[in-house]
Amino acid sequence: MSNHYNAETADWLSFQQGDKRALSACYNTYADYLYNYGCKFTADTTLVEDTIQDLFLKLWKNRENLGQPASVKNYLLKSLRGLLIRKITTAQRHAPDELEESNYSFMLELSPEHIRMANEQAAQRSLQLKSALENLTPRQKEAVFLRFYEDMSYEDISEILSITIKATYKIMARALDALHEQLGQPL
Q1: Where is the RNA polymerase sigma factor 70 region 4 type domain (predicted)?
Q2: CA separation for the pair 87, 106 (Å, rounded)
Q3: Cβ of 55: how many Cβ atoms within 10 Å?
Q4: Which backbone phi and psi does 152 adopt, to 5 degrees?
Q5: d(CA 24, CA 27)
Q6: Per-residue confidence of the chain (187 residues) as pLDDT tens digits?
Q7: Mind giving me the DSSP string for 59-102?
């Protein structure tokens, strides 16, 4: 096991025992990551920041009943996703239990570094790719973001999206097929 994993596990256990420093360390480690992920669901940065705060407050209140997640990062991403979707759904006056695929958008944008590289290498190709990505379903966009921009495994993506690994592969295959069809070459 890596040192990062051991430190993460130790911080999580300390947090569960009431160590505010450990919660603060967890927040400092993952807040930017969570913010970046949350901003893919909504342009309302205040909502994203509030939801991250709510997540950590909820974690603190329920710390004694929490288990040890296999990955703290994935647990936090999944938890943020659930809270954020519920807030967006409530704000849109839809049923708060589950957000249907057609009722939310997942804003997938290339990072500034990727945009710069794409502009340097092939500005036209970048525009074609962006156009093709926009035609994906929100769930496909989210899976592509997690796989290629966050470098997550299919297992991690399935956990965050609350779907089976097989369904994750299917979503990715359909997304890649759609991109291939639109771009005219294998990805």
Answers
A1: 127-179
A2: 15
A3: 21
A4: -95, 155
A5: 5
A6: 455 567 778 888 888 898 989 889 889 989 998 999 999 888 889 999 999 999 999 999 998 888 888 888 899 999 999 999 999 888 876 544 555 556 666 777 767 676 666 667 667 777 888 889 999 999 999 999 999 988 899 999 999 999 999 999 999 999 999 999 988 865 5
A7: HHHTGGG----S-HHHHHHHHHHHHHHHHHHHHTTS-SS---GG
